[in-house]
Write a structure and sequence with these properties.
With 115 residues, the protein is mainly α. It is built from five helices and no strands. 32% of the residues lie in helices and 0% in strands. The termini are far apart.
Length: 115
């Protein structure tokens, strides 16, 4: 089980360009339980994650899959991504700065004046 710090510090600063994936946009909208059912081969204790979806984060495994060069590995995530995309599209639009906690010194990854 990961610590809560791990849940917020999943970051990689590779400049690797990966192919885009859009298949999830045409995927049918599922309930969280249905979307997660397709991931049961990839996530240990999937039923516990579904029950504790607000507390148990699956984004670490999703992020690893998003960073994989083999884009076919994303196929089982389409239901979950569609649900997430649908939910976030309903959030109010806002402009501002988002801060993120990072447990690494990433200052050497940026040039002065770079955004």
């Amino acid at each position: 089980m990961s610590s809560s710090a791990d849940n917020f510090a999943d970051i990689e600063l590779e400049n690797k360009r990966l192919p885009a994936f859009y298949g999830y946009l045409n995927y049918k909208l599922l309930s969280l339980g249905e979307a997660m059912r397709e991931l049961q081969d990839f996530l240990i204790e999937i039923n516990r994650f579904v029950k504790l979806a607000k507390k148990a984060f699956v984004h670490r495994i999703l992020n690893q899959t998003l960073r994989a060069e083999d884009r076919t590995k994303l196929r089982p995530w389409f239901g979950y991504l569609k649900l997430l995309d649908s939910a976030t599209s309903k959030l109010p639009k806002l402009k501002g700065t988002i801060f993120r906690r990072i447990d690494k010194n990433i200052t050497t990854s940026f040039k002065e004046g770079q955004r």
